[in-house]
Design a protein that fits this description.
This protein is of the alpha+beta class. The strands form 5 sheets. The chain has a 4-stranded antiparallel sheet, with no helix packed on it. It is rod-shaped and about 150 Å long.
């Protein structure tokens, strides 16, 4: 009887070992791979692969560094290969990590064991999120030599007290805008920077069309993430140049005075000729009168 009980115990132990080994079989529950953070203007999504089969699912556990792990209720035993963690990252200056766990699909009982999991790299929203391109409007000064670029702060996916934050709200005085500009159809580029939303570009050539792009810059961030995406290009209209744009004041004055001098000289010649003719006619009449008196 005792021998039979011992054999039964061994059999149960072997069977349990086989079950546990099978549950941890990497072919049945493969680990998540290529775990990547995709984030722009603080909208942050964790992605990975491969797409799960009907035999298993994924659960995401994340943590703010130094704090306990948590689970996103929308990313538990899911067949998806991404998890939106935007709303769980309320502290934008903190850093986060995540684990993607391979588990039985929803509806299948879980064994009391640790399932295969893969860890993400560390992600810090304040320094790592991509800054999207801003929108802007151009204002051309009447003198034609100055253009003011009015930039609109892009909105983010972050909220505070029910209000959606802009990148200016998040970065404050650390935020500046860089304007890249050039003459239309030219390859040479110049830049202008400002901490305000109005960037003034001066010393432009009158009458020329200029093209502009804008990007956000945060100098306190790592070099690789300091500069945001470039905006679309906007160009000013080419203006008809005035005489002053093409000629100096001396040349214009000469062009005006020369015809006047020519006209004046012609009038003088005509007047002189008329006076000589009149004088000649008077002399002839005086001679005729003297001859009659003799």
């Amino acid at each position: 009887m005792r021998i039979h009980t011992r054999q039964t115990t061994v059999f149960v132990a072997v069977l349990l070992h086989i079950c546990l080994t099978t549950s941890l079989d990497p072919d049945l529950f493969p680990r998540a791979q290529n775990i990547t953070w995709i984030s722009s203007n603080f909208k942050t999504v964790l992605t990975w692969g491969p797409k799960p089969t009907a035999d298993y699912s994924y659960t995401v556990e994340f943590q703010q560094v130094g704090k306990d792990h948590r689970r996103n209720p929308h990313c538990i035993r899911s067949s998806q290969t991404e998890c939106d963690l935007t709303n769980t990252m309320s502290d934008l200056r903190a850093c986060y990590t995540a684990d993607v766990i391979s588990e039985p699909p929803m509806g299948v009982p879980k064994e009391p064991q640790e399932y295969p999991h893969s860890s993400s790299p560390r992600f810090c929203p304040y320094t790592d999120t991509v800054l999207l391109s801003p929108t802007f409007k151009l204002e051309v000064n009447p003198d034609g030599r100055t253009v003011t670029v009015h930039v609109t702060d892009p909105l983010t996916a972050a909220f505070q007290d029910g209000r959606q934050l802009s990148i200016r709200d998040v970065f404050g005085e650390e935020l500046e805008y860089k304007v890249i500009y050039k003459k239309n159809k030219s390859t040479g580029k110049k830049t202008a920077k400002s901490n305000s939303n109005a960037v003034e570009v001066t010393r432009l050539d009158r009458g020329e069309s200029y093209c502009f792009q804008v990007q956000a810059v945060v100098r306190s961030r790592p070099t690789s993430t300091q500069e945001g995406e470039l905006s679309q290009t906007q160009c000013t209209h080419q203006q008809n140049p005035s005489l002053l744009d093409n000629y100096s004041v001396g040349v214009i004055a000469g062009a005006i005075l020369l015809p006047l001098l020519l006209v004046g000289g012609l009038i003088a010649v005509v007047v002189i000729c008329c006076r000589r003719r009149s004088k000649k006619q008077r002399n002839e009449k005086e001679k005729e009168a003297e001859a009659l008196n003799v």
